[in-house]
Amino acid sequence: MKKIVLTGAAGRLGSYLREPLLKMADELVSTDLVDDIGTLYEDETYVRADLANLDEILPLLEGADMVVHFGAIGDESPFEVILGPNIIGAYNIWEAAFRNGVRRIVYASSIHAVGMHPKTEFIGTDAPHRPDTFYGLAKCFAEDLASLYWDKRGVEAVCLRILSCAQVTNARAVGSWLSYDDLIHLVERAISTPVTGFSVVYGVSNNDRAPVDNAKASFLGYRPKDNAEQFAAKIFAETPPLDIHDAGNMCHGGPFASVELGNSGMAALNIVDDKKTN
């Protein structure tokens, strides 16, 4: 490929994707809202752009083969805050992709699009939307937008319903963990698979306790290798008995399923900021 555009390049997950994406294209254009993202790789450029501003997104995607769309507010917030970057921003990415003839968008969706399903249900990629927050609702919107733009305008999309891509620091993550190596593998497969149409795949490692089923996305060839079971004994020994009446313990969305709308779900997850620096 000639050009890949990565949104959310300043984020933690974006930091792990920049170098692998460069290996798949002649040029990587990274973008986010910060003034700069530090040292750039060879053949990488950085453009500051606001996802909520279509006039800034349109030229960014000119000549791109694919967009890896990881830019958004990454936590629950009031709807008015989510609306710009997560909802209008998603529309702007798909509309700019269509106008520029971009073939495919690889989208960082989330388990929170289906977060209110009980964790005791082993759900597949065809599970109906059941968002747990405004954040999850925005993921539902973007997935439906992706489906619409495939059906009506021929823009392919692979929606990665990421469960929890961070160090394993809590009991939920023993099932929901996506390692950085498996994240990279997943994105590479979403890009390199010859034909995808509109597809949904769960972003989760090969965990013994993974609560979701990727069987219907097997054509992507995503075969994760890491397993959070290696952390299970230590995590469970440090975790008090879980309250079965707490939706955060009983639903796929974890704490996002139990917080009041507009309040942070990430605050309860003990996320370690181990952003990659080159």
Short description:
With 278 residues, this protein is of the alpha/beta class.
Please give the structural blueprint.
Layout lengths: L2 E5 L4 H11 L4 E6 L11 E5 L5 H7 L5 E4 L9 H21 L4 E7 L12 E2 L9 H20 L2 E7 L10 H4 L3 H13 L5 E6 L8 E2 L18 H7 L8 H4 L28
Parallel strand pairs: 1-2, 1-4, 2-3, 4-5, 5-7, 6-9, 7-8
Helix pairs in contact: 1-6, 2-3, 3-4
InterPro entries: Epimerase_deHydtase, NAD(P)-bd_dom_sf
Protein name: NAD-dependent epimerase/dehydratase family protein
Family: Belongs to the NAD(P)-dependent epimerase/dehydratase family.
Search tags:
NAD-dependent epimerase/dehydratase family protein, alpha/beta, 31% helix, 8 helices, Rossmann fold, Epimerase_deHydtase, oxidoreductase, two-stranded parallel ribbon, 278 residues, NAD(P)-bd_dom_sf
The CATH class designation is Alpha Beta
Count every beta strand, where a strand is a DSSP E run of 2 or more residues. 9
Topology as a string of helices (H) and strands (E): EHEEHEHEEHEHHEEHH
Q: Note poorly predicted spans.
A: none
Net shape: globular
CATH H-level superfamily? NAD(P)-binding Rossmann-like Domain
| Rg | 18 Å
Mean pLDDT: 97
Tell me about the largest β-sheet: 7 strands, parallel
Strand order of the largest sheet: 3-2-1-4-5-7-8
Q: What number of structural domains do the residues give?
A: 1
Instruction: Output the structural class.
Output: alpha/beta
Beta-strand residue fraction? 15-25%
**What is the end-to-end distance?**
23 Å
